[in-house]
Sequence to fold (219 residues):
Amino acid sequence: MLTQFYGVPSGSIGWYILPFALGNFCGPLLLGPLFDSIGRKPMIASTYAISGVLLAIVGHLFSIDAVDAAQLTLCWTGIFFFASAAASAAYLTVSESFPIEARALAIAFFYSVGTALGGVAFLSGINTVIGDSVNAVGFQIAFYYALAGLACAWHFRKQALTGLGQFILLLAWPLLGVGFCLFVAVYNVPTFDFTTKVVGIGGIAIGIVPYLWNRARLA
Fold:
């Protein structure tokens, strides 16, 4: 997106990713204690809601050309400050339903795939592949944040039906965030080149392998 719409050279993309990565790191670090003191349900719902609303605002600003590359990056940093905390807590909540062996296998599997992609990037021309990888990873982040929100809404579906407030907090707001994330992901797919589509969509597709392996093992 930065290269296509703002003309940022692929070799400079890393400088824009640094604050983005910082937001992803600081979100769970600074907001994490609130998930224990206030509670997972209200914090997951509120952080997803905040990130969804911010994403809608930033999307509107982007559509009317009201932000430049640096401002857009700062906006993304703020969005994922909240979204990363929401997704991390949702992953933890949902993953408690799976054996620790399955979680360890999934982590090892994706780490090995990431390492392999890093080697390919080194051999194939680092700037070009990094530019494609940034777009692919952005697509995957949007997809998995949406998946985490959907899983969280499903996990708390019974509590959400106990009252209007609970319904809004535990179901409506997370699903609103899911909708925004999926819209952003799907909207950008036509702008991807072949490499980005393979890495982004293929990386999600192979994620089903550890899941099916675990289901077969427990069957």
